[in-house]
Design brief:
The chain has 241 residues and is an alpha/beta fold. 39% of the residues lie in helices and 15% in strands. The longest helix is centred in the N-terminal third of the chain and has 14 residues, at 53-66. Keywords: Hydrolase.
Length: 241
């Protein structure tokens, strides 16, 4: 039976980053959706200073409504973990499974995950955003992939990110806990990283299944076939905790 996957990309990226993973999943018979968040990728010309994680939650809620999606496997990468959590807190009844791919998995409403996870990096973002600038440049390509060709492609595709998404957390209602199937996939070659800490935290909690993928942070770019196979098994409940 076909499953419906909805992908939420991370900071600086766009829906484009999922294309190879989407292709592999479609070849397995699944339906996929990979929208781009406001102010990024092909929507970068619409960037403005007031974009926050809640803005991006509204983006995904609109996709769910207007594409008439239901029984969704909702996958968030990196910063996208905030967004899928916010979506789950709004429409848990629409979600079959939540999957965090090397992502933040917030538990507290409104808390800036970036400032908490890496205050030095957040301070650098704030310095970059001084003098009225509200966009910050991507800065960690070496953590995303070792493949030189893919790294150059990422550099050509990534766009500056609205800093409001980093300054503020996502608003949570608490209803995200109604989604019973929660998975965390950690990218084992992306270490050290705040996502290793997220992985260890959720691994110790009941109700989570955890897996590792041998990739750097951008597993959907670096190992799309492996990731697609893992997501297929998650959706079909064929994967071990």
């Amino acid at each position: 039976m076909s499953e419906t996957f909805l992908f939420v990309h991370g900071a600086w990226h766009g829906g484009w980053c999922w294309k190879d993973t989407e292709k592999a999943l479609r070849e397995l018979g699944h339906e996929t959706h990979a929208p781009t968040l406001s102010g990024l990728g092909e929507l970068s010309h619409l960037a403005h200073p007031d974009i926050t994680p809640d803005s991006h939650v509204e983006d995904i809620l609109a996709v769910i409504k207007w594409r008439e999606l239901d029984n969704i496997v909702l996958v968030g990468h990196s910063y996208g973990g905030l967004i899928v959590t916010g979506v789950a807190s709004k429409v848990p009844e629409k979600i079959k499974s939540l999957v965090y791919l090397d992502a933040f998995a917030p538990e507290v409403s409104g808390k800036s995950i970036f400032a908490d996870a890496n205050p030095e990096r957040m301070a650098a973002f704030e310095a970059e955003a001084a003098n009225g600038n509200f966009l910050v440049e991507p800065d960690l390509f070496d953590a995303w992939t070792d493949d030189p060709v893919k790294k150059e492609w990422l550099k050509s595709m990534c766009t500056p990110h609205p800093i409001g998404s980093f300054r503020f957390g996502v608003t949570l209602s608490g209803r995200q806990s109604e989604v019973e199937r929660r998975h965390y996939i950690v990218c084992s070659r992306n270490s050290p990283s705040p996502f290793q800490n997220e992985y260890q935290r959720v691994k110790a909690q009941p109700g989570w299944q955890t897996q590792e993928i041998a990739a750097k942070h951008d597993a959907m770019v670096e190992a799309p076939q492996v990731l697609a196979t893992m997501l297929h098994k998650i959706a079909k409940e064929e994967i071990d905790a």
